[in-house]
């Protein structure tokens, strides 16, 4: 196989049978950093020497620009429904493959698993194998905890050269619905024909006080013909005219 690193998981049969998948290419200009060189002297009775220090400083004028290319793949697996109400999952269950090594050209290759509890009390869940480290971050105003697997760490892979990250619940699982994210959306198609056919997208922000910027990208089915002048935006019951 010519695949290595995380690309080993990209099995088309599994990706196209997921609940959702999307690919994106992001290109943006980035201001380069420049080196500043400074000197200072250290002298004593018998010794006198000059030392040089290099430091990185962001170019405020942004005269030198580099281009950043970022490719992303988003895949959603509904393991709760397909697993008959069980929330346990693993890389092998989702992709029918496991990780064997890191990409030889990558300077950084990591897997992050969200192990944040949905309640204040700590969830009785178990992630195997043990992660290389834990990482905490604030996402949409909520504190999240991630188990981090560094694929460049030689001790991460077992003797079979296979890494199958698994998450299991230690207690019997209830059949309650999964918690809804703070920022979520619903989308549906209604009506028919050019006169009454429409796409409705509902975006919900349930955070008590914080607002979030949203970029909406609509994928229009081939059988619908839309017109920009029919776009309507309603926020809290009031219509907003696009600028």
From TrEMBL:
One of its GO terms (cellular component) is GPI-anchor transamidase complex. One of its GO terms (biological process) is attachment of GPI anchor to protein. This is PIGT transamidase. It comes from Eurystomus gularis. The lineage of its organism: Eukaryota, Metazoa, Chordata, Craniata, Vertebrata. The gene is Pigt.
């Amino acid at each position: 196989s010519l695949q290595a690193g995380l690309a080993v998981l990209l099995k088309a049969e599994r990706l196209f049978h997921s609940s959702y998948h999307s690919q994106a290419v992001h290109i943006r200009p980035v201001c380069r950093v420049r080196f500043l060189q400074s000197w200072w002297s250290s002298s004593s009775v018998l010794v006198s020497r000059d030392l040089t220090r290099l430091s990185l400083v962001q170019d405020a004028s942004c005269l030198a620009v580099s281009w950043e290319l970022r490719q992303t793949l988003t895949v959603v697996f509904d393991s709760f429904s397909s697993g008959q109400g069980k929330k346990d999952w693993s890389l092998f269950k989702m992709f029918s493959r496991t990780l064997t090594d890191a990409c030889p050209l990558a300077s950084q290759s990591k897997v992050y698993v969200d192990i944040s509890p949905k309640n204040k009390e700590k969830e009785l869940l178990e992630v195997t194998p043990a992660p290389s480290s834990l990482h905490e971050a604030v996402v949409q105003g909520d504190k999240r905890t991630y188990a981090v697997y560094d694929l460049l760490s030689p001790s991460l892979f077992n003797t079979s050269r296979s890494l199958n990250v698994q998450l299991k619940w230690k207690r019997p699982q209830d059949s309650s619905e999964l918690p809804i994210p703070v920022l979520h959306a619903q989308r549906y198609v209604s009506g028919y024909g050019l006169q009454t056919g429409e796409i409705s997208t509902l975006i919900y922000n349930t955070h008590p006080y914080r607002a979030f910027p949203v970029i909406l990208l609509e994928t229009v089915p081939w059988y619908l013909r839309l017109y920009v002048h029919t776009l309507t935006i309603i926020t809290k019951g009031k219509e907003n005219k696009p600028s």
